[in-house]
């Protein structure tokens, strides 16, 4: 098994796509040839590329679209799990991603997953952007191939259902409506992976491969006044921004805190986006909007990070990124977040509880610098033990060794 094909869930970049690229890098480190197949996005493909560690690695972009007429055994497209792709519900397959488009350069327009894969030197196979056509074309394209197919999300797993030599890697808990599609998707697969113990408790027979992040450590300096609290991700109701706005508006007293808001209203409905925008507007000049930026750029500019999610997170990449950077974080207990930061973390609050969130923010904002350094050091140690690339590489090596030859 010298080649591994990574199949994307979406053309745009969400948490699952971030982890697809991270998986590809580690597989390449382990000596595998890596190819990426996924739905295209509008605009020209970028085929000039640079490989890992600065080594030139010109990418190949292959137009691999099938006819869309359905290969033998193609699942009915009416059975594509609802919400399993497209842009309506949060880059389905996400794992609590920060939502900041990697490679977007702060422009607000994200590169597609295949563009980013090509820029890192991977051979990419560009199929139809439309979800239903993508399902048909992926099944036809995959027919007869013998390489290991690593399906990052429900859509590629469903498209190739019933075939062996597959790993199904879920980055989001299937909804009740998606349950039948999930059972079909994992049929005859070799392994199902999930990113957290919390999610494994919801998905029978799944194995945990915790997510990991790059090393973002930069030796933060002393926290200033007012304290700068970062938020990194989608501006959506389910990400807890209404709760955060309420906590900052009513619960801080005289404690000066400035919210540094990265991201924007991607993958959310218009009504929800308007509610979030109105709530943040009421905070006035206490909010500094920086738009779409890389996680490292934001984390170098704040004293803490808040992840106030309402909807259960399958993992929580922003929290892990903050842990890597040595930036103290405040998280809700939605889904896997409390497991990511660990049982001894001081600032974990009940999801949706604005009063409790305000208490945690006040505690963080009033803490002496020595206390913030202590928390940051503990977070960093947990990241090194649980969510660093070195640890993930060995876990991945073990998973590959356990698969049939």
Automatic annotation (TrEMBL):
Region (Disordered) location: 64-106
Keywords: Glycosyltransferase, Transferase
Biased composition (Low complexity): 72-81
Domain of life: Bacteria
Compositionally skewed regions (Gly residues) per UniProt: 82-93
Pfam families: Glyco_trans_1_4
Protein name according to UniProt: Glycosyltransferase involved in cell wall biosynthesis
Organism (species): Fodinibacter luteus
């Amino acid at each position: 098994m010298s080649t591994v094909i990574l199949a994307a869930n979406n053309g745009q970049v969400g948490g699952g796509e971030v982890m697809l690229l991270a998986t590809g890098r580690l597989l390449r480190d382990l000596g595998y040839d890596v190819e990426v197949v996924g739905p295209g996005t509008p605009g020209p493909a970028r085929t000039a590329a640079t490989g890992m560690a600065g080594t030139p690695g010109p990418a190949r972009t292959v137009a691999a679209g099938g006819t869309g007429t359905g290969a033998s055994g193609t699942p009915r497209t009416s059975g594509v799990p609802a919400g399993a792709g497209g842009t309506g519900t949060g880059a389905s397959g996400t794992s609590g991603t920060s939502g900041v488009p990697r490679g977007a350069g702060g422009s607000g327009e994200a590169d597609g997953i295949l563009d980013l894969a090509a820029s890192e030197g991977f051979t990419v196979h560009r199929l139809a952007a439309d979800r239903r056509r993508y399902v048909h074309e992926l099944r036809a394209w995959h027919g007869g191939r013998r390489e290991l197919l690593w399906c990052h999300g429900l859509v590629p797993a469903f498209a190739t259902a019933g075939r062996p030599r597959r790993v199904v890697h879920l980055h989001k808990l299937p909804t009740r409506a998606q349950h039948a599609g999930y059972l079909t998707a994992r049929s005859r697969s070799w392994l199902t992976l999930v990113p957290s113990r919390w999610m494994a408790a919801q998905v029978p027979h799944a194995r945990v491969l915790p997510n990991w992040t790059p090393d973002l450590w930069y030796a933060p300096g002393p926290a200033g006044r007012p304290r700068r609290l970062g938020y990194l991700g989608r501006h959506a109701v389910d990400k807890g921004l209404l709760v955060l706005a309420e906590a900052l508006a009513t619960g801080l007293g005289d404690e000066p805190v400035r919210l540094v808001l990265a991201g924007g209203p991607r993958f959310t409905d218009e009504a929800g986006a308007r509610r979030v925008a109105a709530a943040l507007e009421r905070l006035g000049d206490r909010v500094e909007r920086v738009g779409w930026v890389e996680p490292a750029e934001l984390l170098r500019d704040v004293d803490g990070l808040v992840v106030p999610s309402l909807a259960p997170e399958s993992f929580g990449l922003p929290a892990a990124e903050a842990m890597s950077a040595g930036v103290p974080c405040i998280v809700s207990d939605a889904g896997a977040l409390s497991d990511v930061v660990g049982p001894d973390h001081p600032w974990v609050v009940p999801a949706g509880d604005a009063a409790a969130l305000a208490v945690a923010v006040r505690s963080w904002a009033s803490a002496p610098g020595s206390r913030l350094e202590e928390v940051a050091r503990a977070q960093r140690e947990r990241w090194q033990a649980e969510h660093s690339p070195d640890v993930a590489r060995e876990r991945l090596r073990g998973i590959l060794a356990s698969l049939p030859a």
